[in-house]
Amino acid sequence: MTKTSKQRYDLYLNTQNTGIIKAAEAVLLESSGHLTNMGFRYTEAYRGHPAAFALDPVQLPLTTNEFNLQCAGGMPGILDDYLPDAWGRKVLAQLAFYRDQRKLDTHSAIDMLSLLSNSRIGAIQWTLPGEDPDYTMGCDIQFINRAEQAAQFIDSTDSFSEHIDEVSLLYLSNAGTGVGGARPKALIHDNNTPYLAKFNRRSLDPYNNARVEQACLQMAEGAGLKVSQGITRSGVNGRDMLLIERFDVLQTKSLLTRQHLITINTLLKNPDTQRDRGGVFRYDDIADIIRYYSIDVEADLSQLLRMMLFNRAINNTDDHERNFSLIHNGEGYCLAPAYDLVPSLVMGAYSVAGYQYSPVPPRPSEVSNHGKIFGLPKTGVKNIADEVISAIEQWHKWAQQCNVSDKDFENVSKVLQI
Fold first, then answer.
1. 3-state DSSP call for residue 5?
2. In the beta sheet, which residues pair with residue 11?
3. Which 3 state secondary structure label does DSSP give 140?
4. DSSP 3-state of 166
5. Other beta carbons within 10 Å of 58
6. Residue 313 or 136, more confident
7. Res 159: pLDDT
8. Pairing with 310, which of 261, 346, 393, 418 sits 20 to 30 Å away (CA)?
9. Of residues 205 and 53, more confidently modeled
10. What does pTM read for this prediction?
């Protein structure tokens, strides 16, 4: 028998220019746990606010219209970006099983929304009608050991029911479901400073991820990329942990507000089915979006070029659609700072994102063969490539500053490609 479900939601926004405001209302319709329709409309109060903007400029422009998005195997981006992916769903599944004695339907958006905490990346919060939003920052850093331990057990393929308690799951559910990706992580705060904590895996990482990623972030900044800096903290249950400052949170005096994020994955969705576009993904696709929606096209195209060349240079082959975002800075959309800049030690694998008709982007030393890239002048392209090359050539300096081990330094050095 087909089971249908319907649930209404309020969508709140919390930015420096709008404050906390009910921006929209939505209704989700599901059949046997699969989303079939999403109704959406902006509130009159939000539309009339002088700082209002479209939360999804492609499919949800700021109008008086009511939108009815058909979901044929897909999920609207404003919901997809909010819900957890691989890591967060693992946490929710364990929370539902051990706390609520039920199995989570990870296909059901309604089911997942019922378990999500208020600790999220970005400025949007989904609530049930009548509920007040609560923009929490995750767990206090004093509980990080407990959250890290719970994360390790969830990440492990071994049975861990004897080793994890409900309190640990609650800490992790509050801190660990608001971030994307597949590796164990959590949102935490230390004296009102918000961080994304990335945990080293006990056995699956090919190198000390915390220290290598911290070194790559510093190297990326040396290459002219906009990034959030990371701090490695040692001795968390005997392991290292990377704390990355959150770029979606703004602090003005004692007031914390957010910046709205929307992934490139969302902006490329099929409007008829809400499915991820799939197929070939290229840096050219991001460039097209920047040209259409950015308020500073040339600066963002230059940043995109740095991202592309840097990812190729460090052999980062995980450059998929969710690892690029636009951020709304109060004036309009622009390319968000770079994140998830980590090398693969596997040589010869294709990047997720290609360039033009090549499955791999050019190396920085190859840009002279391409002339203009993304329409940027040749001299500008060459200058950017030279800055990336200069930063990569100093890998030893960045590795030393971040206490990367000799073994990890050598292994990463073998895959650098300038």
1. strand
2. 24, 126
3. strand
4. helix
5. 16
6. 313
7. 47
8. 261
9. 53
10. 0.93
DSSP 72-120: SS---HHHHTTS--HHHHHHHHHHHHHHHSS---TT-HHHHHTT--S--
pLDDT at 6 over 80: yes
3-state DSSP: the chain helix, strand, coil percent, rounded to 5? Answer: 35, 25, 40
CA distance 24 to 347: 46
The token pair at 99 is: 């706390």
Locus of tokens 């600066």: 299
DSSP element (H, E) containing 193? strand 193-199
Q: Whole-angstrom Cα distance, residue 201 to residue 184?
A: 7
CA distance 354 to 124: 31
The residues spanned by each domain of the chain are: 4-127, 139-245, 260-413
Helix (H) or strand (E) holding 251, with range, is: strand 249-252
End-to-end CA distance of the chain: 58
Residue 349 binned pLDDT confidence (cut-offs 50, 70, 90) = confident
* Residue recorded with tokens 């640990």: 168
∠ CA 102-129-51, rounded to 5°: 125
DSSP 136: -
Residue 175 has pLDDT above 70, yes or no: no
Distance CA 170, CA 146 (A): 10
Q: What is the pLDDT of residue 179?
A: 67
87 within 8 A of 185, measured Cβ to Cβ: yes
Output the CA–CA distances (angstroms, integers) from residue 21 to 43, 129, 238, in the order listed.
Answer: 10, 14, 43
CATH of 139-245, one of 3.40.50.300, 3.30.200.120, 3.40.190.10, 1.10.1780.10: 3.30.200.120
Tokens for 224? Answer: 């002219």
State what percent of residues in the chain have pLDDT above 90: 67
Is the pLDDT assigned to residue 286 strictly greater than 90? Answer: yes
SS3 call for 292: helix
Predicted confidence at residue 192, as pLDDT, reads 80
Contact criterion met (CB below 8 Å) for 360 and 312: yes
Write phi, then psi, for 271 (nearest 5 degrees): -70, -15
